[in-house]
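Reviewer comment 2.1 asked that we show a complete input and output for one of the modelled complexes. We chose the adenosine monophosphate case, as it is the one discussed in the main text.
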Amino acid sequence: MTTHQSAIEVLKNKSKHRKTEILPLANCLHLVSADDVFAPINVPSFDNAAMDGYVFRFEDFLNELNLQIINEIQAGTDALLPLKKGEAARIFTGAPIPENGDTVIPQEDVLVENGMLKFQKKVNKNANVRQKGTQTQKGTLILKKNTKITAEYIGFLATFGIAELEVFAPPKIGIITTGKELVKAGNSLENYQIYDSNSVFLTAAFEEIGLKLSFSIWVDDNKNELKNAIQENVEKVDVLIFTGGISVGDYDFLKPVLDDLDVQESFYRVKQKPGKPLFFGTLNNTEIFALPGNPSAVVMCFHVYLKPFIKEKMGIESFTKKEFGILMNEYIKKSGLTHFVKAFVENNKVEILNNQLSYQMDAYTKANAFAILTENQEHFQIGDKVEVIKFRN
Ligand code: AMP
Ligand code: MG
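Response of the prediction step:
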């Protein structure tokens, strides 16, 4: 049996090993860049019109020349003709400025008669022209290493035609849910069955950090079936997660099976409540977590261990510094285990919620944190300072 601090230390060290991967830009949402990116082109990449109007030589406007409209330049077409003295061209937003042209006047500010342009308003030199490189010069740093990729970043990078990015590789994750008593939603229950909520929670929780599971399967409480399922699936993923079957009941076969398969154990059983049977180990290149079956423990183990471990691998610092709060209510527990109790924390005030048992999920509809009630203390008083792990704002 280990302490939660040592278990976290083990995971912290393991998560330092980060792989990188080149992915299509569109698949990089929520991921973190693993390299600097420099602008491959100027943006804009050519001088172009900011308005629908007419383009001309500013010098001709100063000299009050009558300008003849010689052609039309549509966005997405080449400005074929250079402007000569006394010439203007019809132009539309985003169309390229022709050679010698330097200024665009909006169509509302001119009169056109017999193909000649008459200015109705003053205009400044270079007005309504978006000049090449004025947003970003080719070669500028546009994405720093270690930046979290948002949809806006993806939009920005797309303007440079960037098609792929080097990012910290999102781990491939698979889930194996065990338990003969489990039924999928949509089916009716016999009075000895319960609905599987763990795999549903984990799927959603990983999605919240930007990860889609590689697989999520159910396996009966049967030694051979478990063993086969592991052998068949372990190489498909970087992290394999079990729920259920890891404690010490007669039908909890997971630990002996993991031993049979020579999974290298890093820790098994943590001095905590809930989540005491938590296991972490490695089989070849796959890291294996076995979480207890109790749903409340699964949520706790996800936020305290799994999520920070996976996020660190994705380049996001997540085993962060400690936070503390002040208890707003009393709590009594036995000594011997550290309790992670469901709590609502606001302005450092910690309210321990009702229904703390490991099968009880209702407190999570209000909880935004776990309060960590230390191993040896039994009586927690109002005003006591306790460590908290916030998992939601
Ligand atoms: P176990 O760790 O397999 O002994 O399971 C502990 C408790 O969690 C039992 O009451 C199970 O019925 C329950 N349980 C196990 N797996 C799930 C699951 N996927 N969803 C909801 N409850 C579960
Ligand atoms: Mg079970």
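The chain has a mean pLDDT of 97. We note this here for comparison with the apo prediction described in Section 3.2.
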